[in-house]
Amino acid sequence: MRLSLRAQLSLGLGLAMLVVVFVVTFVAEEIAVRNIERAIDEALQKRAHAVAAIVSLDITKEEESYARVVSDLADRQLPFLPLLLRVVSPDGEVIRQFARASDWIVESMDQQLGLPIGVDGRFDTIRGLEPLRIYVMAIPDTGTGQALAYVQAVETLSPVDDAKRLLWLNSVVVGLVGSLLAVAAGLVLMWRGFLPLREIVQAVNKVDYDHLGVRLPEETRPTELRQLAGSLMAMGRRLDTAVSEKKRFIGSVSHDLRTPLTALQGQIEVLLLQPSLSAEAKSSLERMLSETRRLILMAQNLLLNVQLESGPTLVSREVSLKELFDEVIGDVWVLAQGLELNVAAAEDVVVDGDRDLLKEMLLNIVDNAIKFTPKGGQVEFSLTSGDGWAVLGVSDTGRGIPRDQLPHVMEPFYASNKSAGEGARLGLAIVKQIAALHGGHVDIQTREGVGTTVRVRLPLRGSRARPGDDRPPAGGVAPTGAGP
Question: Considering the entire predicted model, what is its pTM?
């Protein structure tokens, strides 16, 4: 699944903010825990040194000094005592102990005395029924440097564990809430940041073949989007100029071609009237005449396509479609040699429109039907009316249109098989343009190997398309079976 740029940025921002907030909160938690542990160590060290300072005034190597120390400490009330504090002789005998302790704590403290103790003392953490922090320091003899006694201070680490749990919970809550707030703020900022880009996209989406100029309102945009808007407008102007020049070129060339081609057609027709022509020469001239007529039709279609793309003003008048049908059938009768033509147009149907354009539309439909129907095939014409619409239908038993090419057959210059000599293929594009110009639409039904039916719906004289009419959009196609 492909995500839009906005969705990708939103997802990336959300994940980034989530990681940042959680990292910051957990780092803050770790710093807070380290500070609490450091405060406990500093408190233990200060209390042990305070007791050591008191003891060092009286203790010596003589045994009676220990008795004085015990008596002196017993008389003192030390307000700064930790959970447990004791003074121990070098032999491991407890000189004085403040507070009672469990056996497992005493055993752990005794074990600490067997470990090396540095000048600054030794910190250890033991974990039993509860986590404890132990600090051990030696009271040295100022003369020999030997230890006269040891001071051990113990404090519980339960507050640290409680603080860790509380900080972890707070970190999760703060992390989630902070992330959501950060993502929400980011989405708002991103929405505001993408607003100029969406306006540019909407303006570009309005561009089509007939309106290539990109018009963007002047407003404050970031530098990059301002550059993009300027580039798009400049590109639209260049495309509009190029297309206009192409239209003028095609119109000029097709107009200039019609005169010599018409003259050539007339000369060939005159030659065909000569009674002295051999059968072979007559056959060659007939083929030349057929190709000349095709070239004339192509030139007419090129010129007409340019005129229709320029959006001409329609001069409407009453047009009898039955008369138009009869006239077109008479014009193409010679071209339909080897085909069976069936006409089902009993009633007369009248519409408002340009007769010449409607005739050109019908000629292009019939020309396609004859061109792509093999010898021995059928072409059927129908004319009906109903619900405010006139319906012209041309059905053939030709090769049909492949399903993948059906959506494109009414695009200008689209050729399903250019190698087969199908030319510019402007016929159906012109049919679509003329039908749309008259307020109608085209429907194509086809099946490969069976045939194709082209129906054009036009509003009847004095009627308009009503909202809710059950009809496809202009130029609709449907890959279904061929009609009658």
Answer: 0.47
